[in-house]
Amino acid sequence: MTLLFCVALLLAYLLGSIPTAVWYGKTFFNIDIRQHGSGNAGATNTFRVLGKRAGTVVMLVDVLKGFAAASLTYLLRNEGLTQTELLGCALIFGFMAVLGHLYPLFANFRGGKGVATLLGMVLAIRPDVAAVCIGVWLLVVIASQYVSLGSMLAALAFPVLLLLRAFGQPENPLLIGFGFGVFLMVVITHKKNIGRIIQGNESRTVLIKMKKTK
What we know:
Elements (H helix, E strand, L loop, with lengths): L1 H15 L3 H9 L14 H8 L1 H19 L12 H20 L12 H11 L1 H18 L2 H17 L9 H17 L1 H9 L15
């Protein structure tokens, strides 16, 4: 169990360390995405700098990183662990992937903010709640045009929905506590965005363009 856990832990970090935005930008555009736009190596900055196709690819791969990391609990399925213990392992593995995204081994430890990777982890653990969080993100971004605000409110929605038993069943306190911890982390990684929102100079992203009527 100890060896398998350590192997899975390392794999989770290495998965998270895949610098999707950096590699995609260098391979197809011959640029380091961290030297353009907001300087962030994530999907949002890729959308703005390299376009929708590049941003979509980066986002999907980053989501997959978190999903795959949390799913590494399958390596431990024959180790006699309880459901709570398996949940704890999934959370740890998912967090290691997020940590890898924030501080990627393969990109001089300069990564993104980890929101897409967090989403992938949540999709692996609670896909029903994740779907609602995606809806919250979409509504907020469409209404405000602030991706950062949508990310923070979607992160908050996850533990709040669990706490309120929105899905009609008691939730594991471990998952709720982890959810609030994740929300705090997302807020911390977006502190510069919060300042720009308050000042009114945060970059806007238009998801749905309305056609002008003649």
